[in-house]
Write a structure and sequence with these properties.
The complex is a heterodimer of chains A (259) and B (283). With 259 residues, chain A is an all-alpha fold. In chain A, 66% of the residues lie in helices and 2% in strands. Chain A has helices spanning 18-34, 38-54, 61-82, 95-121, 124-133, 138-167, 177-184, 188-196, 199-208, 227-248, and strands at 88-90, 93-94. The longest helix of chain A has 30 residues, at 138-167. Chain A is flat and about 65 Å long. Chain A starts with 17 loop residues before the first helix and ends in an 11-residue tail after the last helix. Chain B is built from 13 helices and two strands; from the N terminus they run ααββααααααααααα. Chains A and B meet through helix 3, helix 4, helix 6, helix 7 and helix 8 of A and helix 2, helix 4 and helix 7 of B.
């Protein structure tokens, strides 16, 4: 099982420094949050999708399509209930509440797609090294990086234990959703035990390799900000400045909604 | 709270952070497709882990829970709401070990197992509190960002955490505690007393965290569900700013949780473990 979204492609976006891509991600979040009007939200979503196409990473949309559709429907429905407006539409739903729901659904979908593009174009090692270069303590970054690499191994252990239980007659695929969840619960204990018991050996292996022996350390992966990164950063900064100007000039808001 | 920083000195604790995060993420990811509120929360039996990780591995369990939840978001739901998930899940693992010591007197058996009726009651109480605190943090941030209503998210997260913790927690702890103890991996055995703060005012800290967690949940639900006139809650804000008002009203409750946590200790648990180890060696 590969739970990760990274796609090994040779694109302009893949070649960017991970710190630049982190800045792009934050920029996409800011853009998504600036505009609540669904029309403006659609423009931001289209821009993010175009960037995803440039990065050749939209094939991952298929993996999260269920989540995206469900988010759109549930978020719109929830805000139709919890928010209110001035123009009655049908039953207890007002037009402004519906537009607000759609705006928020677009906002959430845009941020999730932006996150997906970031993860599709940035390897785990690049993320952690980028975080260290941005000032995150090395030991913390090491724990995140190790956890990321161990997730498939733990999932494989879970699958192996599941197969062992199946060979003893446990049917994990029969029954409703709750029944299937209940059947998987006994698998949690062997997964925990088989993983945690390696802690001491893992720690000794790390220390024998000099983990933490020196406050400064070198890295196998060298990150370097290039002119390409600088150009992208300037373009995104300009885009953000224009968007902020438009928002403060009164564009992209939604009037008459109370939440 | 200094132990959440000093623990990084110990290689074993760093490894425990990585392993607990990996376990939590690997057991959360398969249930991403059983959503309750899509993109925000789903049926999560794996939510039992933060309680157990917290009690057994202390601050390493808290960091592991936070990172594990973040990695789960890496599977397709990474967004600004992930910050709330990180903080909420950190507290889900942080409060169990932090609050545990506040319920036992010095000299009393405070090993993190369920060997007495009192310990079972304390475990359930802490599970209720940590579930509420986790929900308040996540729902507050998401409501503040205008992503999802506080009431919908807080109630679902509290129940989701609570069910996993109360139903599965005692079973997991009964099975896992002896093994973790035998392997010498309890946080109280790895850390030394100087790295953990002594309880300044454990009783007051205990009360403040309860007031912040349960009080915040109740006030947030009352305001969010409209049982109380939001006009007053939004006093001083422009029309449509009740959501912002709810976000601001919750800040004192969040502050109570943090201030209360600062008053709770943890050193007494480490010292008790040291004394216990000393007695074992003498025997």
């Amino acid at each position: 099982m590969d739970p990760f979204l990274y796609l090994d492609r040779d694109t302009f976006v893949h070649r960017l420094d991970p710190r630049t891509k982190m800045f792009l991600l934050v920029g996409a979040f800011v853009l998504a949050f600036l505009f609540l009007n669904p029309l403006y939200g659609l423009v931001v979503l289209a821009a993010v999708l175009a960037f995803g196409a440039l990065a050749r990473s939209l094939s991952n949309l298929g993996r999260i399509r269920f989540i995206l559709v469900a988010i759109a429907l549930v978020t719109t429905a929830l805000w139709c209930i919890f928010a209110s407006g001035e123009t009655p539409l049908f039953l207890f739903v007002e037009l402004e509440a519906l537009l607000y729901g759609i705006g928020v659904a677009l906002r959430i979908s845009t941020t999730i797609i932006a996150g997906m593009i970031f993860l599709s174009t940035t390897r785990n090692e690049e993320i952690t090294t980028g975080l260290v270069k941005l000032g995150i303590p090395y030991r913390f970054a090491f724990a995140v990086s190790t956890a990321l690499r161990l997730v498939p191994a733990v999932a494989t252990t879970g699958a192996t234990i599941g197969q062992a239980q199946r060979s003893r007659g446990l049917d994990l695929d029969e029954g409703g959703v709750l029944e299937r969840v209940r059947k998987r619960v006994p698998l949690l204990i062997p997964v925990f035990v088989s993983t945690i018991r390696s802690t001491n050996i893992f720690s000794m292996a790390l220390e024998s390799k000099g983990f933490g022996a020196s406050p400064t350390r070198s890295y196998f992966l060298h990150l370097e900000m290039t002119r390409r990164d600088a150009i992208v950063l300037v373009v995104v900064a300009l885009l953000l400045a224009v968007a902020l100007y438009l928002r403060f000039a009164g564009y992209g808001g939604l009037e008459g909604v109370t939440r | 709270m200094k132990e959440i920083f000093t623990m990084w000195r110990h290689t074993q604790m760093v490894v425990l952070v990585a392993l607990t995060a990996a376990i939590y993420a690997a057991t959360l990811i398969p249930t991403q497709f059983l959503p309750i509120i899509p993109g925000f929360t789903n049926i999560r039996p794996a939510n039992v882990f933060p309680f157990v990780f917290g009690l057994l591995f202390g601050p390493a369990g808290a960091w592991g829970s936070a990172i594990g939840n973040l990695i789960n978001d890496f599977f397709g739901t990474l967004g600004p709401g992930s910050i709330g998930g990180f903080i909420g899940n950190f507290f889900l693992g942080f409060l169990p070990y932090k609050m545990w010591g506040a319920f036992f007197r010095r000299g009393e058996d405070m090993e993190p197992n369920l060997s007495s009726g009192k310990k079972v009651v304390v475990f359930i109480a802490i599970t209720v509190l940590a579930s509420a605190v986790c929900a308040v943090w996540i729902a507050w941030l998401n409501d503040f960002l205008g992503l999802l209503p506080f009431a919908a998210l807080a109630s679902v997260i509290t129940l989701n955490n609570l069910l996993a913790g109360v139903v599965l927690g005692p079973i997991l702890l009964l099975v896992l505690y002896p093994r973790v103890k035998r392997w010498g991996l309890l946080w109280t055995e790895i850390m030394v007393p100087d790295e953990v703060p002594a309880a300044g005012a454990a009783f007051l800290g205990n009360v403040l965290v309860w007031a912040g967690g349960i009080g915040g949940l109740i006030v947030g639900l009352v305001l969010g569900l409209g049982f109380y006139d939001q006009g007053l809650a939004a006093a001083g804000f422009a029309t449509g700013a009740a959501g912002l008002a709810l976000g601001l009203i919750m800040i004192p409750f969040l502050a109570l949780i943090v201030i209360g946590s600062l008053m709770l200790g943890g050193r007494e648990q480490v010292e008790a473990a040291e004394e216990d180890a000393g007695h074992s060696r003498v025997r």
